[in-house]
Amino acid sequence: MKKILILYIFLFSIIFAEKTYKCGVAKGYPPYQYADNNKIIGFDVDIASEVFKRMGKKIEFYSGKWEDVVAKLYFSDELDLVCGMETTTERIKRFSFSIPYYERRSVIFVLEEQKDINNICDLIGKNIVGDKDSHMEEKIDKLGLKKELRIKQTVSKEKSFELLENKNFEAAIARDFEEAVKKTESIMNEIKQGNINKEEISEVMESTIENILMDSNIALGLLEGKEGHDYVFKHALNTVVIAIIIGNALGYNKKQLDTLGKGALLHDIGMLKVDEAILRKEEELTPEDIEAIEKHTIYGYEALKDMGEEIAQIAKYHQERIDGSGYPEGLKGDEIPEMAKIVAIADMYTALTEDRRYRSKYENYDAMKIVMQSSATKMLDHKILKIFLEYMPIYPINSYVILNNNQQAKVVKANKNPFRPVVDIEESGKVIRIDLVSEINATKYIVGVPK
Predict the structure, then answer these.
(1) Angle at 158 (CA atoms; ends 156, 161), nearest 5 degrees
(2) Are 435 and 422 in contact (CB under 8 A)?
């Protein structure tokens, strides 16, 4: 009887035990949420604690990199909520938000010796770094300082602070990479109305090229994260990122990268003149449909002639193939301009890794195999493809993989060997970085991805 009574009390306590809510916060965003001597503190933590106290509920905090915290909330049951997340159109689709408890102000971080920076206007002429998870650009625009302030973009606040600490920059602030996509959308919509906004195109290209040159892995990480946008806008920007990375590896100067980038951004502009009913078809295309679509290269060339012959030729010849099997003129080998060859590879890869009406997207590994097969059959330029393979990770930046010792690792950087990137693993609460190309890690390799 005694044993039964003890078991009953134990079960009763489990059933009626008060739930403790697990709340995620970022470890590196003072004064709002950060870790100090392993203690999780900040304004957001204080407010969340007070709210739960008034509700008579228990709360405990988990601290980590912001993207990891959000991933845990969205993809697992490890967290019940996060605090301090700003609302965006995309986030509202995925998460439920409480009413805001206070208005967050943007923060400018400077080194102690920077005594001359006291407000946002003091940043004019300074080298500023910022991350992709904030909306400072909107505030800058409202203040009329959009043209005076340039922000170099990073993938995380931690990266921004690292660059600031190393004195590569004079201030750290925030910016949202979605701005580039929004501007691309605006450019395309204006083109539909017959207006090519050269100034806005130049602005998008200048900031995009600067960000890629600063760190191509950041650009690749952002490329993997853009969802919810119209295919045309997303595809255009993805193509630009890959084309610029290849052009930079080939030794292009900034003027050449600008030309390549503009051509990549607008390479499919001629599609805007193709009957939308054909483009939306889910059934097999007729020979007449295919002929109509192939005319987009000629339409694009005519539309872009005022921007320069090199840019217009990218639109015209990006569907040509080394073996002469492409269109519109069936050019072969060196007859095809090099920039068009670059965009051909970037265009093919991004198209394969994006959802279409008639098929789901290919995983990066499968898309890479298809692109390599196209080179083997002499459709794509072998020299350019080799550079593409060196810089494009088969495993996307910020994705997770399984190593041969069954450890889960996060891909953080591409290597010249696309099968052996740089990854982060977590051991005893510490993040350890492993370069799989290094001889010391020769016995470690990727065996798959989490299901």
Answers:
(1) 115
(2) yes
Domain-embedded: residue 4: no
Does one domain contain both 148 and 83? no
CATH number at residue 172: 3.40.190.10
15 assigned to some structural domain: no
Strands of 133-268, DSSP E: 151-154, 171-174
Looking at the 3D structure of the chain, how many domains does it have?
4
Q: Which residue has the tokens 């991805």?
A: 449
Note whether 193 and 243 are same-domain residues: yes
Would you say residue 14 lies in a domain?
no
Q: What is the pLDDT of residues 233-251, one digit of tens each?
A: 678 888 998 999 999 999 9
Angle between helix axes 309-317 and 338-352 (nearest 10 degrees) is 50
Q: Which of 313, 322, 315, 324 is nearest to 297 (CA)?
A: 315
What is the DSSP secondary-structure string of 119-131?
SGGGGTTS-EEEE
Spatial neighbors of 183 by CB under 8 A, at least 6 apart, are 200, 203, 204
pTM score, whole prediction: 0.59
Model confidence pLDDT, tens digit, residues 167-178: 766 665 544 445
Q: Are 282 and 310 in contact (CB under 8 A)?
A: no
Assess contact for 361 and 322: CB atoms under 8 A: no
Q: Are residues 189 and 252 in the same domain?
A: yes
Which residue range is the domain that position 55 belongs to?
20-94
User: Is residue 170 located within the same domain as residue 183?
Assistant: no
Provide the pairing of β-strand 33-36 with 28-29. antiparallel
